[in-house]
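worker-03 picked up job from queue 'complexes'. Input manifest follows; two sequence lines, order preserved.
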Amino acid sequence: MSIFINKATRVEVQGVTGKEGSYWTGHMVDMGTRVVFGVTPGKEGQTVGQIPVYHTVARGLRDHAADAAMLFVPPRFTKDAVFEALDGGIRKIVTIADGIPLHETVQIRSAALSCGAVVIGGNGSGVISPGQAMMGCLPFWIERVYKPGRIGVMTRSGSLTNEVTAEVVKGGFGVSSLLGIGGDAVPLTRFAEMLPAFQADPDTDAVVIIGELGGTMEEEVAEAIEAKVFTKPLVAFIGGRTAPEGKQMGHAGAIASGGRGTAASKHKILARAGALVAKKPSEVGRLLREALGVK
Amino acid sequence: MKLFEFQAKELFAEAGIPVPVGRVVSSVEEAEAAAKDVGFPCVLKSQVLRGGRGKAGLIRKAADLAELKSHAADLLDPKRNIGRLLIEQAVDIDREIYISISVDPTAAKALIMACAEGGVEIETLAVTQPEKILRRRVDIDRGLQDYQVTNLLFDLGLRGDLYKQGRALINGLYKQFRKYDASLTEINPLFVTKQGGLVAGDGKFVIDGNSLSRQPRFKLERAYFDSDVEFEAATEGIPYIQFDGNIGLLCAGAGLTTTVYDLINDEGGRVANYLEFGGANYTRAHKALELCLKNDIKVILVVTFGTIARADVMAQGLVDAIKDLKPTMPVVPCIRGTNEEVALKTLKEAGLEPLFDTEEAVRKAVAIAAGRAA
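worker-03 finished. Artifact:
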């Protein structure tokens, strides 16, 4: 089992003919991901590798069924691409776009919530279940990071994904599913919303979250642990412990989070809920061993 | 992009939100001329982006021309990056209200917050009496509804003419929030005057950084930044924060850069600058190194573990940049991720000693900076 995607998931790729799009779609296929068609307006009839390209999602769906959409689309076209996939009936979408306008992230998440869809991203690296399938830009062939195993990973940081996951593997474990939740101010899907899937997954023994300063996603994870929505061991790493109080975004930020949001306060709240908090990435493996009773 | 108060008030005025009569000036002579239009008593407000201006003495009241000239001469100071003052008519204040619009990322809605007790102590109030902060969430596809405004106004205790003015004000503020892709707009304090009017006492307006390409009205200028390097980095779209240590940082991604910053502090080192050349900037090692070299540093630490940002591209970029810019201090590269085997080869062939472990690289850089290694 894996969450979000597996070997059977039929994936269509929007923006498939672009430089990054074709490069990473090739890697998705190499890993065994079932890519059924690609979309680039004006390029119908072409192929990327063996994958047929269509002008639009609707035109591709006339010939192929799809369960999930991978978007290699620039930030300013991402809202349109998400709505196109949603209107095609697709309910699992991944975007790696870095720089989606804030108000559009609000509109995308709002639309997804109202039709029960899950959109992962933006400003993340994608989703992978090692040994199963990958959507996005994850170098699955780097064995010291993407070793199949029984630890779930969720991350707000693209750059820390490899750094921390390598420590999971160094600790003697591997990855069941990794979700690039992403670093935007409005993540299209939040940590706590994916915890029930990891809880239900018989192939996940524990979850590692890679958090950041700001926002309240880590606090929501603590609430899910306290409410027993998530009862498996959880290890958290949050960068920015020593960061000086930054330029604050007016009073609204401070009020919205009621004084919360620093790495230190996130550490405290997670630890109080029973999560194991790593001060450095290199502690993640040891904490997982402690939590799972592995010597 | 955070706007200056006078720019925020420009946007308010355009939406029909009352602001005090005021003029922006950049010299004592201009201040004198402005006072003729504004009248006395007036207030001189330094146009800087940092908060706490009142407590820092950057806002002063002038009763006559002599006071105005002396305050203006005192406040205008290029060294403190104060190049402009907003000269405003003083307002007869009865009480102060707080209002802001931001985004609620969980609900995926715009968030209006308001409080009948505004002013500088609002953050304390938010912690001690959070129930006093009113919150209304707005579906941005549906737009702000009349009943939501009605609720807010009654809950704020505004009646009669203030109620009417309040309705126009909230609608105007929401309109500008949407039109200019704001991540935050805030009026604190919003004055209720003794004459029974509403006037925006201060103004904050932050345009979302991801929306700047479709919001060309306000251009980045030197005045927004405390240093030339920060201005240059921002112009180039490279995230950069100035510190005063001696370890130059060239990292990829906010999460990893912040973590390396933590690890350096743990080891007793001091960071000269925060700099990211990951994401869309991963081909821009040359510019990144150029910015880094503007600081007085003992060592350059390069840490990446990229996915989209390919290690081979970053390593080649770094090697080319070193060849061209010839830094005199050692470079400690720790470049991993997609195509790292190519990156490793590139770095070795260029005579560098690539490391593979972040903490090891940090320890080495800290040791060099402290003169304990070469």
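worker-03 released lock.
Chain A has two domains: 1-122, 142-295.
Chain A touches chain B through 63 residues (CB under 8 Å).
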